[in-house]
Design goal:
By secondary structure, the protein is of the alpha/beta class. It has helices at residues 13-24, 37-46, 56-60, 72-85, 100-105, 149-161, 171-197, 212-217, 225-234, 236-259, 262-280, 303-313, 341-353; strands spanning 5-9, 29-33, 51-52, 65-68, 91-94, 112-117, 138-142, 165-168, 290-297, 320-327, 331-339, 358-362.
Length: 366
């Protein structure tokens, strides 16, 4: 089975990115449809779709594959509508971040394969779409018992052609997994920043006095409520289970603090270090060798370019970096990740010679 014509239903950031990635992979024709005419016009203007259809039926007519990129709350009815409007030889998939609801809506048909690319952006709209969005990303696929194996292979191959890595998972397990790895962190980020924002300590505002730890922990706080309200409600069961387990972990920590249990705290921190190292293992070839350089930088144009060019000229590879801006007067802290203590020291000496203050430490602690 070959995909000659692709229909993208929902042409926001993710849908338009699917279209661009498919065109990059050599797909002959990509047609788009969106209930919002402005969103569809933006996708056409961006060059993500070759043409915009006036109706869902027009979009899916003659297509071999339809990708539904609707918001979570609209996903199940939209998938049902696409299945009803499309011909029997059209396979249907989606890119929603929860899977139980939409897979339940497609029970009884072998034409649907649920999907979820684990990637995204804080940006919105087709104008910010990118063909590279899925490169190296995990893309969960949730076939059902009734799913036609040939259609699963079609979606699997399509996902691979976009640069992603397809991973099969049960829909229930998927929603439990993302509750723990995505939805719980978003919930806790909101809780942390709201707790800080609701307090005053001896007249001081904790938010105004926030250090790097709170900023790091709350980067995703306040994310688009139009998206996240639907995600929390659609996956409420698994999120509640994750919160309940988190509450138990907090109780254990609180008990250890009350009793002065240093042994528990040492074991607890050690487990965290090991788990974080495992988490980073896929991103970096040797996470244990990562060194963290914290560089104080002034707030002026060209500073970051100068640092990266200086290290690049010495063939020192920057694995990752992040900038925490404090104020125009105080500048900020640039954190660089470099593999190997010798390379990190060499980078620190180079930057120190340029007048920067640099602190070097193992990225995962000691």
């Amino acid at each position: 089975m070959e995909v000659r014509r692709l229909a993208v239903v929902g042409t926001g950031l993710i849908g338009a990115s699917v279209a661009l990635a498919a065109k990059r992979a050599g797909l002959r024709e990509v047609v788009g449809y969106d209930p919002d005419p402005q969103a569809l016009d933006a996708a056409v203007e961006r060059g993500a779709v070759d043409s915009g259809a006036e109706s869902l039926a027009d979009a899916v007519a003659g297509t071999q594959l339809a990708v539904v990129a609707a918001p979570v709350a609209q996903l199940a009815p939209q998938v049902r509508a696409v299945l009803e409007a499309s011909e029997e030889d059209c396979t249907v998939t989606d890119v929603g971040s929860t899977k139980v609801g939409v897979c339940s809506a497609a029970l009884g048909t072998g034409r649907f394969v649920g999907g979820h690319p684990v990637c995204g952006s804080e940006a919105r709209g087709a104008e910010h779409a990118s063909a590279e969005l899925f490169d190296g990303a995990t893309w969960f696929l949730t076939p059902l018992a009734a799913t036609d194996p040939e259609r699963y292979r079609l979606v699997h191959g399509f996902v691979s052609s976009l640069g992603a890595t397809p991973v099969a998972v049960d829909p229930v397990a998927h929603d439990q997994l993302v509750a723990l790895t995505s939805h719980l962190p978003h919930a806790l980020a909101n809780l942390l920043v709201n707790q800080a924002g609701a307090n005053r300590i001896d007249g001081h505002d904790p938010v105004a006095a926030a250090g790097g730890s709170l900023r790091d922990m709350t980067r995703v706080a306040g994310a688009n409520p139009r998206i996240w309200i639907d995600i929390f409600l659609d996956n409420a069961g698994p999120v509640r289970e994750a919160l309940g387990d988190h509450r138990k972990q907090l109780d254990r920590l609180e008990q250890a603090l009350e009793t002065g249990d240093a042994g528990f705290l040492a074991k607890w921190i050690g487990e965290a270090a090991g788990n974080r190292q495992r988490m980073l293992a896929d991103a970096y070839p040797d996470p244990g060798a990562l060194q963290q350089l914290r560089v104080h930088v002034p707030d002026r144009p060209g500073v970051l370019a100068g640092i990266t060019q200086a290290l690049g000229a010495e063939r020192i590879n920057i694995e990752d970096f992040e900038l925490h801006h404090m104020s125009p007067d105080r500048g900020g802290t640039l954190t660089l990740l470099i593999t190997g203590e010798a390379e990190a020291r060499r980078a620190a000496e180079l930057l120190g010679a340029q007048g920067y203050g640099v602190v070097v430490a193992p990225a995962l602690g000691e």
